[in-house]
Protein 1
Amino acid sequence: MNLRFSGAAGSVTGSKTVIEVDKEKYLVDYGLYQGASEDRSRNWASFHGASEISAVFLTHAHIDHSGLLPRLWKDGFRGKIYSTRETFNLCRILLADSAMIHDEDARHANEKQYSRHKPALPLYTSYEVENVLSLFETVDFEKEIRISEKVSITFFWAGHILGSSFIRLRCHDEQDNEKTLVFSGDIGHKRNILLKEPSLLCQMDYLILESTYGKKLHSRIPAKEVLGMYLNTILKRSGVAIIPSFSVGRTQDIIYLIRELIDEKQIPEVPVVLDSPLSKKANAVFNECFCADQIKDDIIKDGTIYPVTMQEIESVKESKQLSETQGPMIIISASGMIEGGRVINHIKSRIEDKNNGIILVGYQPEGTKGRILLDGEKILRLHKEELRVNASIFNVNTLSAHGDYLDLISWIRDSKINPKLIILNHGEPEDSRHFKDLIESQLGFKTTVASFGEEFNLDHIY
Ligand SMILES: [Zn+2]
């Protein structure tokens, strides 16, 4: 039995792990590399032997876990993709959106002639997306499914985004010995705004565990308090608060926090406008599965996450009109890092007025417009226009869909497991190393950090 770490090893994007059991090959996740251009160039590499992969087990819909599946289809994969129903529903909207972005990127590269390839082609199109979506087979949580004579899988709730799961594989090796592997995918935590905490781990021989926050801790100050304070500052001067937000997960968190702030009269009852077609679709998926399996009981009791003054707008005309509407008002729009989407126009029309404010609510990597604002730059270039940053810039850094190392350590401890080996992936090298030392010293489990391309032969080494 073999494991190969073909992505998200030494980095946090491009998740993909190959498992070979008795000559059958499977993949856990097939995600897109994001961030630095040397990482992104890996997205173009073909998967040799894609047609020999029997199935993909998909932990969740985030693009760094699912975003290369259309390329896998293009490379010849025709097996099944197993995921939860919500993961499939989110993949439908996220992969379609991803194809649109790749198409725009290629068109832009051709117009500006900056690509080495003539003509520049998109990484994939809606054609590959439609084809790969037809390979999905949805599964229920905690229901074991037999994939072959040698392999059974079970999905468990991971508390990270809707539909997110960690996956247990029960495999029989050539000598017919049973071995159990658990792939964590991304794991949430107890402080998540809307989602229930992750299920406890089941017993396993090998745990393949994410380590995104292996060296960092999230602030424990409630996000509602911080958001309320910033919103009040902007709204009291009749300004417009613009919240650039990620469509899946973060936008629903923000909408609900604003609802609570208005209901508790902690902020004035002002119009709240969501202007992002993708976020609107993500809200629809959220509404569809508004049930007790994944969402916290208090939220279910409330019956909705929407503030009374909430409007979702769709057309370009409405979006343009919104840019001219007077405050006080809250606008939520994508993208969360101000790298594209309708939020660009809202920022362009509001950033030079000191009464307005921009509230960042997620991680802002180097090189993004969000990071430029966070770093306190006084000039922002958008669409070749130089804009003076007169609006207030605020940052709510207490929201994260990932558990930090303290969350993960207590999750493992509460689960009372006894793995033979923990293999860490999905982390920057420093985070993974720190987390390895911590697991070994606090829990006493043998732990190793997977490097890119590393193979583990589980028959002979352990
Ligand atoms: Zn994720």
Protein 2
Amino acid sequence: MSDGTVATCVLVVLALMASPALGAADVGAVTEAMQQPGRHHLDIDVGAADQRSSVPVSVLVGDREGPTLLVLAGVHGSEYAPIVAGQRLANTLDPAELAGRVLIVHVANMPAFLGRAIYVNPADGKNLNRVFPGDPHGSLSERIAALLTDQLYPLADAVLDMHSGDGNEDLNPRWVGFYERAGEPSVIARSRAMAHAFGFRHIVAFQWELADRSKAIWAGSAAIALGIPAIDVEAGGKNIVDEEAVAAIEEGVRRTLSHLKMSTAVFPAVENQVVIRQRSWIAAPEAGTWIALKAAGQQVAKGELLGYLTDWHGRRRFEARAPAAGLLLLILTAPPVRQGETLAIVAQID
Ligand SMILES: [Zn+2]
């Protein structure tokens, strides 16, 4: 009985501490952990009323001073290779060998992860990677974006936003993207250097210009808008834990730590990196059943048939043909398609 009373009191005190500002007490716990050398695992509360979620974050603090790297995974809940890579790094990176701090956000979009959802957060039907910089008083996806943009990004000197092909996407080869035309020249230069240092052979130089912060709707671009160098990692897909992709991401993060002088590990140089500036998207003109005829990673000729859409009765309605010769970077694997969704992406390589 008395134990119950004590527990109730503790709960009331915790509720009072948590209530004034959204998630403030929890982000306070992150900044507190950042002062203590070692390995810390925390869960940040986000949301309100019927839309609540928890964001698992590991904080690795080195014995020596250095920059803070934020590693972000699970913005899309069915992109497993980066999530698993982040979870492994959280327990295998040795804080004693670090200069600075690594913050790893394991699953930004927990409702999508637990709901096995592609593209959107089932709590509000929104694509988290289209609602940045977010809104601390909005729906759950907007609140998660605001938590990242307003509270976690400002703690970091650099951001790695990690994705894969979504649960219904075949993505190959793996690539690292950076914004070549958005942000201050020094931010662009540092992002470009990080993209190359990550060590993947293919680099995508995004050509979007983000004239104001409200245009920075992607997780990585929201960091750029704050003046923080950022890259977008893409490896794995097809709803599986692709162990090759997981290992490549883990090595990429370790290479990034070395590049930022946060570790003394030495890696062999990567030769012959390829920069992609031009990509063509093929969108579904209508909803239908998609049948893919190619796999990502193949070279395709202009006009080559990549797959087709049928209506609900199996009648062929649309043929997806390569708009240009190039490398098939991404192609859908699963049949259900809504109007306007991307069926395939072809990269033209100079
Ligand atoms: Zn994604």
